[in-house]
Design goal:
mainly alpha; 4 helices; 131 residues; elongated
Length: 131
């Protein structure tokens, strides 16, 4: 049976590796979103550059541009959340609920690595009752 000090050493080395893996996941996610945004922007510019005489084609192109811009807003917000998670990681506050200070569950962080709130506080936030 390993001694307590050996177990503490294993935990201490596992933590930086785990945090490095989380950091990489966040950085990769951010880059993926930025790449998608740049692609959407390129497609939007191409569709507005195409000379289309058909009113239906122009309406479709306008709708697609609006749709891409709305996605871009959502993606922008997600990039900001990811950047905030990276800051919490650097400051040592990653995995701690911004509202109540309790630990955020590992399954939640695995699913949403940029999560700011524990599941209880997130539910309150979505209901508009987080104080």
């Amino acid at each position: 049976m390993p001694k307590a000090s050996e177990k503490a050493k294993k935990t201490a080395t596992a933590m930086p590796k785990r945090l490095a893996a989380i950091r990489q996941k966040l950085v990769d996610q951010r880059q993926e979103i930025l790449d998608m945004y740049e692609n959407d922007l390129r497609i939007g510019q191409q569709s507005s550059d195409e000379a289309s005489e058909d009113i239906v084609d122009r309406a479709n192109n306008a709708y697609q541009r609006e749709f891409m811009f709305s996605l871009s807003d959502t993606e922008r917000k997600l990039v900001l959340q990811i950047e905030q998670a990276l800051k919490r990681l650097d400051a040592g506050g990653y995995g701690v609920c911004d509202h109540c200070g309790e630990k955020i569950g590992a399954p939640r962080l695995k699913a949403i690595p940029w999560a700011r709130y524990c599941i209880d506080c997130q539910e309150k936030e979505e209901q508009g009752s987080l104080e």
